[in-house]
Amino acid sequence: MRGRRAALRLAPLAGLLAAALVAVLIPGAAQAQEAVRPYGDFPVIGARGAIWISAQVHLMFAAFVLGVPMFAVVVEAIGIFGGDRRYDKLAREFTRLLLIAYSATAIWGAILTFALSSLYPRFWSYLTVIFGPSMWVYAGLFIVESFTLYLYYYGWDRWSAGRAKLGHLGLGVLLNIWGTIVMFIANGWLTYMMSPPADVTADTAPETVQLWSALFNATWMPINIHRLIANVVFGGAIVGMYAAYRFLAARTDEERAHYDWMGYVGNFIAIGALIVLPFAGYYLGREIYEFNQTMGITMMGGFMSWLWIIQAFLIGVLFLAGNYYLWTGMGRIPGAERFTPYVKWMLLVLVIGVIVWATPHTMIASREEIAAMGGTHHPFLGVLGVMSAKNTAVNLMILTTFLSFLLYRRANKEPVVPWAKTGTLVQGAALGLSAAVVLFYGVYGYFVTAIVRIGFSVYQVLAVLAAMVFVIVLDIAMMRGARSRGAIRWGRMPARSQYALFILAVTFTWLMGLMGFARSGIRQHWHVYEVIRDTSPQASTPALGPAATMISVCVLIFLGLVAVIFWLGGLVEKPAHKRDGGLVVAGLPAAGPSGSGS
Amino acid sequence: MWRTNLSVAFVVIGTLAVYTAVANIIPQVESEVPTELSLGADVTADELVAAGGELYSGAGGCTACHGLGTRAPDVVGVVGRVCAERKPELDCKAYLYESLIDPGAYVVEGFQPIMPDMRRTLSSQQIWATVAFLQSQGGEVTVTAADIGAAENAAEQDGSAGAAPPGAAGSGFATHPSDPAGLLQEAACTACHVLDGVGGPIGPPFDGMGELGADYIRRSILYPAADTAQGYEALAGTMPATFGGQLSAIQLEAIVQFLAERP
Predict the structure, then answer these.
(1) How close A180 gets to chain B, by Cα (Å)?
(2) How crowded is residue A345: how many other Cβ atoms within 10 Å of its Cβ?
(3) pTM of the entire structure?
(4) Does residue A182 surpass a pLDDT of 90?
């Protein structure tokens, strides 16, 4: 066991060292080759395919090792300040998986570096000339981050109480800080390719490009924020998937109850963060338009226009699966049956919302298609496909999902404060008012110019956010000291509900690949947009079909490796099972769900 | 346990299969790389229009906005008729060229100034081919190889990389247009023509050719059989008709100007 742990400890560092050596040694070699070999080749899938897979799988693991620590530290904090040991156990269980995931991240990072330096030597050389110093900082921080992770995990028992426990939580926070800085640095490299500073042109020598201006480019901060939130979503989804598998494979009620609860927490965090993600997406989209209108149009209305229909379809699946899981989960909560009649109406709103959101509008159409439609837009669907309708649909879907959480949260509680009835009415009014504001601006948007209509989306978003904050604050106050209608029967979930968690995780992962394609693809045939042209044989950007196939391959590789990681994590537990006959996670006493929390 | 594993694998792979299938069923639009053009000095209007049409509907990215009726004016079948009326001081060709390289100079009423300077992504040849295609949409195509040559000359003189981006027009000769005498040497013209007292006697001497005028010289290079110089009737047909395809437009114009200025 010690040998395996030692190997796990060393693997990320070995991978990192190899990548760092390549980063340092290859530029010189690449410069020497510049005149003869700008591109290399890779068998069967080609150079671009090799880069695509290695970059995408590396990014998925990177999201895993950035998202799960956020999840772990928040859960540990809830355990410390809420006094519930289950949360501490949950945080530790996932930190253990992180050790192996770090190795996978470093290995795929090294593969990506080797692939870049051998398949795109000239371009790689260009990047290292500009970003060389930041690459060293990145490598150094990765080592510090890894060491912090080891301290965080192996110090769990030693620093388990009192001030030492708070210090341990501090290590978790530090782990997240290092990880976030590492991500921000890497984001600087990739966003430079999208939005280089205005003074960098095709004639600019890379030696003259200022590192800071290259890093802090137009889309750097929007991508940072978007990825930060998306990593939380991803971490929650992966936790949910892990819990779902363990739930289905559980042999005891205690085990089933634990993983049922874990799945709920994962889903709660994933969907909760997902609700905020579209706002970060709007910010990123706006900055892309600000940087270069053509790039924005290419993204939203050019050859990528159909991509957003697929995205709407996927997000629709996420909303439906997330809500389905919640509604099914209400079956294990005494008192939840009083909310059952509302479910069909919420489902109706969600389904209509998905249909509207996924309605095409301004698409590139052939002359035959235009003739068949009788114009550039479909006579009926064209009305639904505009932003007024789509923004309205999305905001109502968010409100509906929030309502699902609210009903779930209140299912087994009965408020005892004297103003409970008034409070509930006020909550209903706030949600109703928010929906009315969303609908009003949605309809009004059809009667104003585009520039005015764009501004309406801000009012709609603010109305929804304000209502959610107001209602939840009121709910917390109202439910203080609430009477319980009965304990949640953790573990009493139908197996089909767990498959919703799998669909959520697969969809999040696939969506990440799709958005990666969108972000990278809008550069089209440029390595660095309008600065360095891609002159390789694979310079054209593929259509959505081939891209989707590639994304699915990446997701399969990633999920396959994650399954191995989960299996390895399970190996550590097995001796404990045998010893105690129950679920014991290394170093912690057996502790099942208390049964009353939510 | 195996049943659980199989059902999980089925759900995961099934979900991926559905997403992949949906993405493959919808219309497939690929972002093409603008094909480098190598238009010779004898390029015809039809060739220009065909090249421009491909750029318009493909790699040029024009259809992302034009043709939808919302972002930019429709041009197909229309713009060739109205282009001459947009700006009184510009004829159709000049207006269309300006709209591609300086789109903010005139914005059609009711639309936003979102059109980019196409020199950032297209070469001079590609831009002129696009102008020819736009002219063909209801109007007469007046773009010629001379327009391309003049634009590339101007770009050379003012050093604007945008008008002739990397990878612009290739040619059969490596000599830069700024050295027309060198070009004549590289093309082995002096094997038959005398330049500065040196050369063969098979064709009329370059020395003193200026009096024939630029149009005559250009025509003689592109279509050697069109005219036969006095005193050289017995050697008619010796001059190869391939130079129009080998010289780039800018090289051809450089030679024409060089010879036309020779006393």
Answers:
(1) 30
(2) 11
(3) 0.76
(4) yes
